[in-house]
Amino acid sequence: MQFTNIYKKNFMSFAAVAVLCCLCVVQSSFAAEILGWGEIAFNSGDFAGSDFVSISSGRYHNLALRSDGSIVAWGQNDYGQATPPDGNDFIAIAAGGWHNLALRSDGGIVCWGDNDHGQGTPPEGNDFTAIAGGGLHSLALKEDGSIVGWGKDYCGQATPPDGNDFIAVAAGYEHSLALRSDGSIVSWGRVYYGQDFDWGDDYGQGSSPPAGDYVAIAAGGWHSVALRRDGNIICWGRNDYAQATPPAGNYIAIAAGRWHSLAVKQDSSVVCWGRNSHGQGASPSLAEFTTVAAGDYHNIALKKDGSIYGWGDDLYAQTSPPDGNDFVAVAAGRSHGLGIRDYGRIIGWGRNSEGQASPPPGDDFIAIAAGRWHSLALRQDGSIVDSGYRNDYNRWWGSLGPPAGNDIIAIAAGAKHSLALKSDGSIVDWSNYSYMENQAMPPAGNDYIAIATGWDHSLALRQDGSIVGWGSDSDGQASPPGGNDYIAIAAGGYHSLALTKDGRVVGWGYNESDQAVPPEGTDFIAIAAGAYHSLALTKDGTIVGWGDNYYGQAGPVIGSGFIAITADGGYSLALREE
Questions:
Q1: In this structure, are residues 308 and 55 in contact, taking their beta carbons and an 8 Å threshold?
Q2: How far, in Å, CA of 128 to CA of 507, rounded?
Q3: Are 513 and 499 within 8 A, CB to CB?
Q4: Using CA of residue 62, residue 66, residue 71, residue 73, what is the dihedral sign?
Q5: pLDDT top residue among 480 and 437
Q6: What are the b/e assignments for 42-73, b being 16+ CB within 10 Å?
Q7: What 3-state DSSP class applies to 161?
Q8: How far is CA 15 from CA 54, 465, 500, 502, in A?
């Protein structure tokens, strides 16, 4: 939501650094990776290579296994499902709805994420050979060919059949599948779907398919997919979006999402069918894939070169996380993010319903700002480009477009308004929101050096070190403390922060989660404010967080080497030098 704070070691004095942070101007040769934590989690450095060997998708998150046996996870992280365990002895991965499983080389199982129904508590032992994660249950295949199930079992989905001739398992939302060594399939769990709803149909997703020589199985939300040895696909179960009506073809791999299905053909292309509400049912144009994985509304595919390709819903950056370690600026919006690479190009990720995560082309950008439904970018020539929601229908929350000219030195994007700082020290807005509590009516003057926007309020820092606030002030968030020793400002949802010359953090405004009560200390060099949490960067490159920590967005953040911080909603972002 706010500007990026950048600390440049050995570049200039601390006071000058803090002011430049507020202006969000990139003038350094450093390059770093982006780390995201809280409700949305990822590490851009994890995607710098192309050595992935296996993939799996949960509801809104993904897993990938590297050739060195380590696990990478990204996407929704409200239960910690996108925070994988350390180690490089893993040989298999499986993503459930909100939980995950990983198989170690010694045959033991590790789980993480949601465990409300025991789905994240694996059985003891070191004799497992395969794993599967369902909506709220889990399955594992043992060396002797038998199956173990655990987790929610109200439909019997976690109670596998007897036998020791199984070679593969798959778990859907309320049903499960197993493949026998003779090529036949056994199903269990919910067979009748919708008996308590208007559909009233027998979808049969828990029934066994016709006899045949099957080599692969996949369990979707309420349908099932199986691959025959001859390359044909058989589907059964719920079919209201044609997710159980596969196209003819010769296939080598299959996957099933909540209401859609997909498969890899022998020519390495991918075919999708079923629901396409978020683009998850659209087939990519590339033909270089080896396997696929499907979430609720998104897909990922493993390419022949070991890299990962994603498409469909990107609400939690599950299909387009930033990759690499060449970033020099980062900005967090409500459900989307932006980053500037060291050569001046912007990339975006996350929710893109209004185009807010689709940055403009070009390699001459020096600053970025992310709001709730829109984004801003500042070019080297001092002009502004915006993307996302515009006031096409004259709605009161829309933007009328940025001001023309080449004299802008800083930008800030709020929930429903935007600000720019001009080279003459004056502030300009371009929102159609001025009649609503005056948050888009900046104060007069030409002595401002920094700006910050919250959801419905704004802050500005004067040359004399004093702060001015305006806009919604229901919780005092637009009423800064007196004094003229401030060098940086940050505006959150309904609270505000300021950094003093001596390295202290001051907070005010809404404080239900103590987000406006910063920690003591005088070693802070940058600040950031999210919806209900706050962050501060210390001189030694570590991050301190406080306030709402429901998703882990306030940390603790492990490690050092951080050089920039930003936050919004229930997540946080930071740049970290390697």
A1: yes
A2: 52
A3: no
A4: negative
A5: 480
A6: bbbbbbeeeebbbbbbbbbbbbbbbeeebbbb
A7: coil
A8: 48, 11, 9, 9
Q: How does pLDDT run across 497-553, given as a tens digit for each residue?
A: 999 999 999 999 999 999 999 999 999 999 999 999 999 999 999 999 999 999 999
Show contacts of 264-271: CB within 8 Å, 24+ apart: 264/289, 264/290, 264/291, 264/292, 264/301, 266/231, 268/304, 270/299, 270/301, 271/247
**Which one, of 371, 324, 376, 329, lies nearest residue 351 by Cα?**
371
Q: What angle do CA 234, 237, 241 make, to 5 degrees?
A: 95
Helices (H), 439-538: none
Report d(CA 245, CA 225) in Å as an integer: 10
Q: Count how many residues are written for the chain.
A: 578
The answer to whether the CB of 16 falls within 8 A of the CB of 525 is no
CA distances from 80 to 132, 317, 487 (A): 18, 15, 35
Report which residue type is found at 386.
D
Ramachandran region of residue 266, left (φ > 0), alpha (ψ -120 to 50) or beta?
A: alpha
For residues 260-269, give the mean pLDDT: 98
Q: What is the pLDDT of residues 458-469, one digit of tens each?
A: 999 999 999 999
Lay out the sheet containing 327-332: strands in order across. 327-332, 336-341, 346-350
Cα separation, 452 vs 460, whole angstroms:
6
